């Protein structure tokens, strides 16, 4: 029998028990779905991390109260109970590091703000920064229109503001120049002095839905008790680690730590972010592999059971075919094809659903759709192996039936 005829006959046999075939494929679909969805989502997060690291800068690191990431555990209270990094400590740090770094910027932030201009307003999701004159340069923000904050803005706590590109588009949609206009935020009126150039998203968050005011005004009028962050840009890649070491000593002095006291601050570096993400990625991947393995093994057993039932139900058919000269290899290939169809159909369903679910995460991180080609190929190969491995025994059983005994079956 030709391969084409085998394929047609195998598909016809599966369609004759459509409900049973679909229920069997769902087990394979669940296993493939879990691994494809997770891997697609992790690739999206990986791209977001890469974008975030490029926005942070190759020679840049941050000093802050909390580590880059931490997930509960016994050490949580140790971080929460640390004293905040104050503005005065930040100024002391800048003085001690003078001439040892290219740029040092101080910042403090709060999310959930709304900007209002005349009858137009943004969503209440604007991130408001209190910043010094080095904030923009140290954090990779360039000015598109207007000017940056200057030392006198900080010194005299002026009510001036720089807005992000997204806020500009919302409040001034007709191309109107926002510089010199006044907007309201948190009950305060600010005069726009500049607009940041468009940056896009990093770590799933828009870098254009933000505004910056002088850090002194932020502390005086918005939040005195919030910890600040310090962004440090080393003079060159070669000086990066040396700058971190110098920053450690300067920060300890600024915080008034004794020699035997541990650091009560953290460094947010590219390496720390990557390490945190890799740990997270490893944990999620292991969980997905366990779920997928269990689902696929269960599905494989289901395929074997279905094929054994199919052999029993079609014993007389097999006997007729063998009595008119059908070779055992033809019977073997037909049943293997049926098992392979069941497995691959479930795999394709799982791939389609998994890509869709994983790309929902990509959308949440403002990333373009992703297709994990490597994992698609791996999934198809695994599904093929599952179909053949668990279909081989029923296929051999069918091929080995005695035609005389098979014809007696009813």
UniProtKB/TrEMBL annotation:
List residues traversing the bilayer: 21-45, 286-311, 339-365, 371-393
Question: According to Swiss-Prot or TrEMBL, what is its membrane topology?
Answer: Multi-pass membrane protein
Gene Ontology CC, one term? plasma membrane
Alphabetic keyword roster: Cell membrane, Membrane, Transmembrane, Transmembrane helix
Q: Name one GO molecular function term.
A: transmembrane transporter activity
* Superkingdom, taxonomy of origin: Bacteria
Q: Predominant location of this chain?
A: membrane
Q: Where is the MacB-like periplasmic core domain?
A: 21-246
Location(s), subcellular: Cell membrane
Domain ABC3 transporter permease C-terminal, residue spans: 289-403
Alphabetized InterPro entries for the sequence:
ABC3_permease_C (IPR003838), MacB_PCD (IPR025857), Macrolide_Exporter_MacB (IPR050250)
Q: Give the similarity note.
A: Belongs to the ABC-4 integral membrane protein family.
What is the protein named? FtsX-like permease family protein
Say which species the protein is native to.
Prosthecochloris aestuarii (strain DSM 271 / SK 413)
Lineage start = Bacteria, Pseudomonadati, Chlorobiota, Chlorobiia, Chlorobiales
